[in-house]
Amino acid sequence: MKFSTKHKMFFVFFFCWMLPQTICSQHINEAIEPEVKGEKVIDLLDGGSLNMWKNSSNSWSLQNGMIVGNTKNEKLDKPEWIYTKEQFNDFEFTCEVKLTGDNQRNTGIYFRVNTFLFKQKRGNNSYEAASGYEYDIASHKPGKKDFRGSLGDWYARLSLRVFADEKIMNQMYKPKDWNRITIRARRNRIEYWINGVKIIDFFDKDPNASQKGCIGFQIHNGSVMKVEYREIRVNKLDFKRN
Fold first, then answer.
1. What is the torsional sign of CA 194, 197, 202, 208?
2. Alpha carbon 106 to chain centroid distance?
3. CB neighbours of 238 closer than 8 A, spacing ≥ 6?
4. How does pLDDT run across 115-152, given as a tens digit for each residue?
C-alpha cells in the first residue's frame, strides 16, 4: 500500500507523540536559553555567603551579596581564581556579571576545572592554573580578535578556541554593565548564551577533554579591573553517559 506525503507526516507525528517525552524533547528548539530554576537548582551564593567556595586570594570577597574580584588599582603578575567546593559534570549554569576597569580587563567563567601547575614560557613564572573549559569575558578592541563569549582552555589546551559571532556580541554584550551568562554542559556538548541569545554550540571530540570539575571565576593578570558576579545558580543534569 502506498501512502501520500500527508499520511506519512501524520504517522511521524503520531509516533513521536506516543514516545516518552524525554526522547521527543531532543527535537525541541535548543537555541532557547535554559532558565535554571526549580527545586533542584543550587544557589551558589547560599543565600549571601561564600560557604560553597574555596577562596585562597585576597582579591576575592563577598560584597552586598555578590562575589567581587578587585585588583585594587594594581596589576596582578599572575591570574587568580575562586572555585566552588563541589564538582560538576553535566549541568546548566547561569549568573550575571559586570566587568569594569582598564582596556585590558578580562575575566572568565571556568568549569569542569582541575587545577595544575602551569609554567609560562616567558619569564620562567609558574602558578596553579585552571584546566577545563572557559567562557571568556574580556574587553574588546576593534580590529583585534574578539574573545568575548569564546570557548577555550587557555592553560591546558591552547589549540582549543571557538569564537562567538562578533556582530552578535556587539549587539548583545553590554560593556561595563550587567550581562547574563548561561552555560549548558552535556557530555561533550557545550552551549553558551549571553543575555538570552545563543552564541556557542560546540561538540568537543577530544577524548581527553575534561568531564568533571569545579566552577571558577577568574581575575586576569596585567589589568587593573573589578568584576562582580551575582544571581549564581547551577542545575545538575541527570544525563546518561556511555
1. positive
2. 14
3. 90
4. 999 998 776 789 999 999 999 999 998 889 999 999 99
Strand 80-84 versus strand 189-194 pairing type: unpaired
Which residue intervals of the chain are DSSP H helices?
5-18, 21-24, 166-172
Backbone angle region of 72, left / alpha / beta, with phi > 0 → left and psi within -120 to 50 → alpha: left
Nearest Cα to Cα of residue 217 among 74, 104, 67? 67
How many residues are there in the chain?
Answer: 242
**pTM summary value:** 0.86
Cell numbers given for 60: 576575592
Q: Which residues of 114-128 are buried (b: 16+ CB within 10 A; e: fewer)?
A: ebeebeeeeeeeeee
User: Degrees (nearest 5) of the Cα angle 94, 169, 130?
Assistant: 50
Which H/E stretch holds residue 40? none
